[in-house]
From TrEMBL:
It holds the Pfam family ILV_EDD_C. It catalyses: 6-phospho-D-gluconate = 2-dehydro-3-deoxy-6-phospho-D-gluconate + H2O. Keywords: 4Fe-4S, Carbohydrate metabolism, Gluconate utilization, Iron, Iron-sulfur, Lyase, Metal-binding. Binds 1 [4Fe-4S] cluster. Residues 68-384 form the Dihydroxy-acid/6-phosphogluconate dehydratase N-terminal domain. [4Fe-4S] cluster binds at residues 156, 223. Pathway: Carbohydrate metabolism; Entner-Doudoroff pathway. One of its GO terms (molecular function) is metal ion binding. The gene is edd. Belongs to the IlvD/Edd family. The lineage of its organism: Bacteria, Pseudomonadati, Pseudomonadota, Betaproteobacteria, Burkholderiales. This is Phosphogluconate dehydratase. Its EC number is 4.2.1.12. InterPro entries: 6-phosphgluc_deHydtase, Dihydro-acid_dehy_C, DiOHA_6PGluconate_deHydtase_CS, ILV_EDD_C, ILV_EDD_N, IlvD/EDD_N.
Length: 610
């Protein structure tokens, strides 16, 4: 199938605007990659320090036999259910490396925070910047500069983008990402959402709500809704950075362990017929414009997380590639929605996997000419290998089989008969600036909202107004001072239940904010990531209570319906010293002042290192 014209045009546009920066990146990676092997160029004391902590046999392999040496960067902790299974992965990897005549070391750990724990708290102010912290920690781990390849162990929201940003700064190393898989299905996501809405209305108490939440998040593994963590896994499959079909195999299964071993074999090029038959390419060569576009297309086709309109801009920048929201918007107009997974459907990711999962999505997109097939991946078979499903036999040997037809056309549909002809995201522009909206979960009759504004300086203020009954009626809730420079751009996911309650009462309701709404953005229309943010003098700071606001996801506009001369003359509100102090102190937020000061806008990836 010929490549879709829009996909081709967007890719060519990215290629042209990125030509100089991409060339500079590749030249730099080539210089670093051409150096002599570390054990041949490092001083004797450097080498001794590097291997002092490993066994004698491994020392012999690394130093004398000059065996390949894998650096493991792990985001393990057992605060994150998704990362708890990673605890024993290094032992598996080291054992498999030895079997392949190689060695492996844990190069370092990176921090990994659970947004589910910090939602609605001051700790969430560190969430977005944890991505850049993880990238820097990855650089610290690999700066020992003794590795021939790398394995990245991580799953969740900011962790995968952070690991990927860090890895791309070592783009001369072959690198494979190693996930842990989702927890088994518990209480359904729709039942969980209903319990939250009932709690917001006071219909159930804390004990009943806690029982519902504990039944939802109940075991090791990734949360089962299709939020940022699971979107990460879909995008890594679409970029060819996993062992094919690895994303959504549950923890604890023999297949899961064997796929982890296969990651070690893959990064060493020890798969297929004959040892060393395929050299895993350096990650900086794999992640080119085509791979970035493939990831964007997969995100749109599955109605994935809005957070990636920030993260993937930063990831692309790390490989010398410049993308923006207009690229997403153009692709969204051409890419059909092929998946219905909560929050844009009722299925969870286990049901998504059972219906065909990433392999089905990638096959349909390739066959429809909506993904680039001429790309490098970590495997010799290219991106077509990612249309197959892994299985293990009684001896735990791996084999892959064709994904077949959709196992449930209520969850996955072919490109010839999609849920929607267009993708799940839309860019909005107008006199309020630029923003994005996830429309895949929003009912069709809510794609246009026109209502009076209520302006809030925090999500706590909005919640208080809701509980006091002050929001009953048509309303556009404007929540400002939530951008990267103001307070680190926290997710405002706690606002979803009360706004859903208002919408359920029949009111015309929308949210407009310079903050984020998480990968779980749901059925309430929300114009998020508004740029410029309020603290940067953005027009969102001009909105006053009672202003008529129009959010039009059909036309792609976001406007305050105020006389143009009045709007132009209106001075933006200023954040008070108390508000600024409240976002800068406590829970270590003082340490992130430099991040807030240096952060770029959301459409520029909210990067803090440029």
């Amino acid at each position: 199938m010929p490549l879709n014209d829009t996909v081709h045009q967007v890719t060519e546009s990215i290629h042209r605007r990125s030509a100089a920066s991409r060339r500079a990146y590749l030249e730099q990676m080539d210089v670093w990659g051409r150096r002599d092997r570390s054990m041949d160029r490092l001083g004797c004391a450097n080498i001794a320090h590097a291997v002092a902590g490993i066994g004698q046999n491994d020392k012999l392999r690394v130093v004398v036999e000059r065996a390949p040496h894998i650096g493991i960067v792990t985001a393990y902790n057992d605060m994150l259910s998704a990362h708890a299974p990673l605890q024993h992965y290094p032992d598996l990897i080291k054992d498999e490396a030895r079997r392949q005549g190689a060695t492996a070391q844990v190069a370092g750990g990176v921090p990994a925070m659970c947004d589910g724990v910090t939602q609605g708290t001051a700790g969430m102010d560190l969430s977005l910047f944890s991505r850049d912290t993880i990238a820097m920690a990855t650089a610290v781990a690999l700066s020992h500069d003794v590795f021939d390849a790398a394995l990245m162990l991580g799953v969740c929201d900011k962790i995968v983008p952070g690991l990927l940003i860090g890895a791309l700064h070592f783009g001369y190393l072959p690198t494979v990402f190693v996930p842990a898989g989702p927890m088994p299905s518990g209480l359904s996501n729709s039942a969980k959402a209903k319990a939250r809405e009932q709690a917001a209305q006071g219909l159930i108490g804390r004990d009943e709500l806690l029982q519902a939440e504990m039944a939802s998040y109940h075991a090791p593994g990734t949360c089962t809704f299709y939020g940022t963590a699971n979107s990460n896994q879909m995008l890594l499959e679409a970029m060819g950075l996993h062992v094919p079909g690895t994303a959504f195999v549950n923890p604890g299964q023999p297949l899961r362990a064997e796929l982890t071993r296969e990651a070690a074999r893959t990064v060493l090029g020890r798969v297929g017929e004959g040892s060393g038959a395929w050299a895993c390419p350096p990650i900086g060569q794999i992640v080119d414009e085509r791979a970035i576009v493939n990831a964007m297309v997969a995100l749109l086709a599955t109605g994935g997380s809005t957070n990636h309109l920030i993260h993937w801009v930063a990831v692309a920048r790390s490989a010398g590639i410049a993308i923006d929201w207009e690229d997403f918007s153009q692709l969204s107009a051409a890419v059909p929605l092929l998946a219905r997974v909560y929050p844009n459907g009722s299925a969870d990711v286990n049901q998504f996997q059972a219906a065909g999962g990433p392999g089905y999505i990638i096959r349909e997109l390739l066959d429809a000419g909506l993904m680039h097939e001429d790309v490098l991946t970590v495997r010799a078979g290219g991106i077509r290998e990612y249309t197959r499903v892994p299985q293990g036999d009684e001896q735990h040997r791996l084999r892959w089989s064709a994904v077949g037809a959709s196992g449930d056309d209520g969850i996955l549909r072919p490109a010839s008969d999609p849920f929607s002809a267009t993708g799940g995201l839309k860019v909005l522009t107008g006199n309020l600036g630029r923003s994005v909206i996830k429309v895949s979960a929003v009912p069709q009759d809510r794609h246009v909202i026109e209502a009076p504004a209520r302006v809030f300086d925090s999500q706590a203020a909005l919640l208080s107004a809701f509980h006091n009954g002050d929001l009953d009626g048509d309303v556009v809730c404007v929540v400002r001072w939530q951008g990267p420079r103001a307070n680190g751009m926290p997710e405002l996911h706690k606002l979803t239940p009360p706004l859903a309650v208002l919408q359920g009462k029949g009111y015309r309701v929308a949210l407009v904010t310079d903050g984020r709404m998480s990968g779980a953005s749901g059925k309430v229309p929300a114009a998020i990531h508004v740029v410029p943010e309020a603290l940067a003098g953005g027009p969102i700071a001009k909105v006053r209570d009672g202003d008529l606001v129009r959010l039009d996801a059909v036309a792609g506009t976001l406007d305050v319906l105020v006389d143009a001369a009045v709007w132009q003359a209106r001075e933006p509100a200023q954040r008070t010293e108390a508000q600024a102090a409240d976002s800068a102190h406590g829970l270590g937020r003082e340490l992130f002042a430099g991040f807030r000061r240096n952060a770029l806008g959301a459409e520029e990836g909210a990067c803090s290192w440029l």
